[in-house]
Structure formats: structure tokens, C-alpha cells
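re: ur msg from earlier - yeah i can do the flavin-adenine dinucleotide complex, just paste it... oh wait u already did. ok heres what im feeding in:
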Amino acid sequence: MKIAIIGSGISGLASAALLARDGHAVSVFERFDTPRPLGAGLLLQPSGLEALDAMDLRQEAEARGAHISRLIGRTPKGRTVLDLRYADGRPGDKGVGIHRASLFNLLHAAALKTDIAWRTGLGVRALHDLDDRPRLELETGEMSEPYDLVIAADGTHSSLRRQICPQARDPVYPWGAMWAILPDPDERRDGMLDQVYRGCSVMIGLLPVGDNPADPEGRPGVSFFWSLRGDAFPAWRSDGLEAFKARLRALWPRAADVIDPISDADTFSEARYRDCVCPSWRRGKAVLIGDAAHGMSPQLGQGANLALCDALSLARQLKDDAPVVHALGRFEAERKPAARYYSLMSRALTPVFQSGSRIIGVLRDALMGLGCRLPGIRNWMGWTLVGRGRLPW
Ligand SMILES: Cc1cc2nc3c(=O)[nH]c(=O)nc-3n(C[C@H](O)[C@H](O)[C@H](O)COP(=O)(O)OP(=O)(O)OC[C@H]3O[C@@H](n4cnc5c(N)ncnc54)[C@H](O)[C@@H]3O)c2cc1C
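and the outut:
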């Protein structure tokens, strides 16, 4: 088939590599002049690692990243709020913290080995003739040739979502995060996702990510994030870096050591996320995948993993000789139970870690640590963490 993929993020690149490998004629349309990674360090879960395994990329991802065996969240006084170990799930389960550029480079290199037509610097404005032979209207006004299938992998802020699913809702979460990937003073290549919370309004995290392609000295990196209300970003910048460093030192000296060498506040990037609900991911011969279909808050660290699993599932369904619309139906049926589960859980959990509520914070600190010690709840939390959660529909 002639397939157009819109977006060269995680789901777009993985789909491009898989579909071109299967012999389809793939064109990738990317708004940026050069495909490039966006966003903070990522935690790859066993589900995402299995998808990378099917692409023969798992070993390299593990070699470039940092092994994560545990997630721990505490209050500034050291009281444990959350404590989950991968070993409590299936034996051999682990997470891999990875610099987004490392994952991007792996997927990009796999895609470059195939015969893909790259159309970079070309944003897509609209889709036409979805029931027949879809065509893309580019931001330049130009119309593309017709395709047999269009895959919209244009991320959480997708402008094509409503063309495929007019009933979609995608409000921006009130809270976002500041993040940066910095040299890890401990030079770790394994460890844990370490978080500190004060009430629901402060959440700080450190995730080792292994290789740091941006570091000229080749030191391993650590992804730092600081939760912030979306409307508080300007005040954070105007308060200045030194005030932030002092505040951080009072809350968590180890995280303060990580950001201490920074002298430019622009080292930090701002991230906002959406809560996307799409009753249908497909229309005619066009389909949404990754964050375009089910963008959510990164609270559970599942978005990139879901995106990789989507790409694998779609490629497998398209291997059949059945009409493309049937393959898209089977893809949606296969992937929706997992996406719905994580959307629901992220929606429920986000205010527990990112909101102004005092009561939720007190209850969380009192009860969550206890839940982590009760076998039934602990198993359910572990099963959710590793990416195996799904609703029955
Ligand atoms: C702070 C933060 C932390 C996160 N942490 C984790 C984590 O630990 N684990 C995890 O699994 N996930 C995490 N995520 C989520 C993860 O980043 C996303 O789920 C993942 O990137 C989704 O991949 P995607 O391919 O759907 O979209 P993206 O990777 O966003 O790619 C979309 C691409 O489409 C292009 N594009 C957009 N519009 C157009 C257009 N009109 N025309 C052409 N091109 C277009 C963009 O330029 C981009 O290249 C995190 C997200 C954030 C913000």
C-alpha cells in the first residue's frame, strides 16, 4: 500500500520502520525541517520493551538507557508515600530510563534502513477523501497525491484529531512540568525513579536515563522534573533560577545538587499535556495512533509505551490481505482496552500528585504507603506500572 504517516515522533517513526520493512511504500510528513526528539526523559516499561524487542531494538535501548528497578516517592521529611519494585511483577520485569533523543535515534536509524520518503518541513493542515483515496492538504496549501492509508501520529496537540473523530475532547490539564536532562553527579546507569512530594502542589522527580547524547563529555544523564501549574510558568521564570535553587535545596538537597551547575533558566523546558478522549480512532482509510489517539498526563509514564505498542499492533493487523478498513477496526479493538485503562487511571491519579488539594495530599500520604504494602493492592499497582493494564472493553 501507499501509506502516509503524519508526524515523526515515537509512534510515527516506529510505524514507518515497521511498515516499510513489511514492503509498504511509506511517506513520512513532519512539520520540523529535521526530525528531532521533543520532551523529557522517558521510562520504558516492560510493555514498551516488548514492542522494541519485536523491532530488534530492545538490546540497544537497554544498552543506551539506565535500568530502573524501583519507583519510590517520599515526603521531604522522608516518609514513604509510594514504593513499587519491578521484581514484584513478573520475574525479569524492569524499566529502562532513556533520554528521548536516544530512543528517537534508535527508531530513526531503524527507519532510515528502509526505503521511506521523508517529507520534512511540511506540516499537514487537513485530510480529504478519507473514504476513498485520502489526500493531505499541506500547510503550504499544496495537495498531496492520494494514499491507500493515512496514519495521523501527530502527537497530543494533534490538529488532525477532530477530522478523524469530530466528537473528540482534548482539554489541556491545568498542571504541567518544567524539565531538563542534566549530567548525573552519581553517573548512574541503573537505579530508581525517585520522587519527592509536598502535598499535591509539589512533585519533584529524578530519573536516570543513561546515555546523554547532548553532553559533550559523554556523562550519563538524569531527567529532572518539577511539577507546576500551567499559569505559573511565567512567575517561575521571573522569580529567577537562584530562588528556585534555594527552594529546591530546602525540599530535596539531592535534586538541588543535580541542578546546581545550571546557570541559565532556559535549560528547563515547559511541558503541557492533554486528556484526550476519542470515541473512534478511525474514519475511512485514516487512523489516529499514539498521543493523537489517546494523549494523557504522563503521571503513569505510559504514553511512549502505548505509542510503541500501537505501532506494532497496526503493522501486524496490516499484514493481512483483508481490506484496510477491517485491519483498522481490528487495530482499534486490540489497542483500546489498554489505552482506556491508562487514560482512566491517569485522569484519576493526576490530581493526587498535581493539584492544589490539601485533603487529597493528606489522604494520599496516609494511605498510599500502606496500600503499597498490602499484597493485592501492591500487585495491582505493579501490574499497572509495567504496562499490562487493560479494561475489558
Ligand atoms: C514531561 C513528559 C514526560 C513524559 N514521560 C513519559 C515516560 O516516562 N514514559 C512514557 O512512556 N511516556 C512519557 N511521556 C509521554 C510521551 O512523551 C508521549 O506519549 C509520546 O511522545 C507520544 O508519541 P507520539 O508519536 O504519539 O507523539 P510525539 O512523540 O509527540 O510526536 C508527534 C510528532 O508529530 C509532529 N507533528 C505534529 N503536528 C504535525 C502536523 N500537523 N504535520 C506534520 N507533523 C506534525 C511533531 O512535530 C512530532 O514530531 C511524557 C510526556 C511528557 C510531556
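cool cool. Residues 6-12, 29-32, 38-40, 42-43, 123-124, 153-155, 159, 177, 179, 271, 273, 290-292, 298, 301-305, 307 surround flavin-adenine dinucleotide (CB under 6 Å). ping me if u need the other ligands too
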